[in-house]
Amino acid sequence: MIAHIVCAITLVVLYILQTAVFSWTTLISGTADLILLFFAAWSLQESVHNSWLWAAIAGVFVSIISAMPFYAPLIAYLGVVGISKLLQSRIWRTPIIAMFIVTILGTFFQQIVYVLTLQISGAPISWGQSFDAVILPSILLNLIFALPIYAIANDLAGRISPLEVET
Asked: How far apart are CA 88 and CA 156, in angstroms?
């Protein structure tokens, strides 16, 4: 129960920061996505078991508020959790490296979903321009903020369910 409350409060705070501060700090046309980074970091924690649920909830919430079609943020966040869980089982000894890999792959996946969604809905977006102006700058900004978000998620997960000390 505590994990759900902490996750909900953290997502609300990150969403407020995302819309109030980080959406205005752009690199070319790319922005950082704190919620994506939180799900990448949160689902890499061994003690966390509710990342799929909260990715779906946040995807629906962000879909309702954003201008993107309803399913795009939902698919993006669930995809990031899927990539994170896949890498968690493969690279479990080095979670920082896994966080950077998930950040790169997750941001790329999210932006591809967004570009495809916009192209399907009729927006005249070219792949070259979106790659140069949005996808690569978004990956760079997300890599800059990946480590602080990972530290926050790791600390929260450690406080919610501390690991047992072997004697």
From this structure: 18
d(CA 33, CA 124): 23
CA distances from 29 to 21, 32, 161 (A): 15, 10, 39
Q: Which fold has domain 2-160?
A: Arp2/3 complex 21 kDa subunit ARPC3 (1.10.1760)
> Which pLDDT value is given to residue 147?
94
Q: What is the model's pTM?
A: 0.87
User: pLDDT tens digit string along 71-130?
Assistant: 889 999 999 999 988 887 776 677 888 899 999 999 999 999 999 998 888 888 888 888
Q: How many residues would you count in the chain?
A: 167
Burial 84-100 (b: 16+ CB within 10 A, else e): beebbeebeeebeebbb
Q: How many CB atoms lie within 10 A of CB 75?
A: 18
26: tokens are: 């752009």
HSE-up of residue 111 (Cα within 13 Å, Cβ side): 28
Average pLDDT, the chain: 86
Radius of gyration of the chain (CA): 16
| Helix (H) or strand (E) segment spanning residue 2 | helix 2-17
